[in-house]
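chain below, 148 aa
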Amino acid sequence: MRANESQAISLRLRFAEHARLGPGKMALLEAVRRSGSIAQAAREMNMSLRRAWMLLDSVNAMFDQPSVIVGPGELEQAHCALTDFGSELLDAWEAASRESRASVERHFAGILARLRDLPASSPGVPGAPFPPTVTGTGGSGSDKDSRN
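prediction:
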């Protein structure tokens, strides 16, 4: 498997209907850890400050303790940091992601080696026309639905 292919393998966790963690929320937590600012983390991820705050608030609401704390002041200038629990959550996510990728690469090694390089217009590729065009009638000569 080529190096860039492993990046397409991502972990998503659904604890309950509205308690979900995926690569986006976790990348936002990492950006907060790195920058110390929700506004800066939002800029790094090309999202609005409001969207970043809503995502972080949903992570805080998910558990019995917050993952992120925000200092006093305007949200755009306020210092923001991961709590000890937020660091534990992010560390667990990173470990689980590494192990998931390694497991998929191990179990699917033979299958992944058989992947084709499909052009964007191929069936099954996002943005490709569906259904694919089929030539020939395959037998009876009629493609009509017999229920009509």
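The beta strands are 13-16, 19-21, 68-70, 80-82. The domain at 3-112 is CATH 1.10.10.10 (Arc Repressor Mutant, subunit A).
thats it, cya
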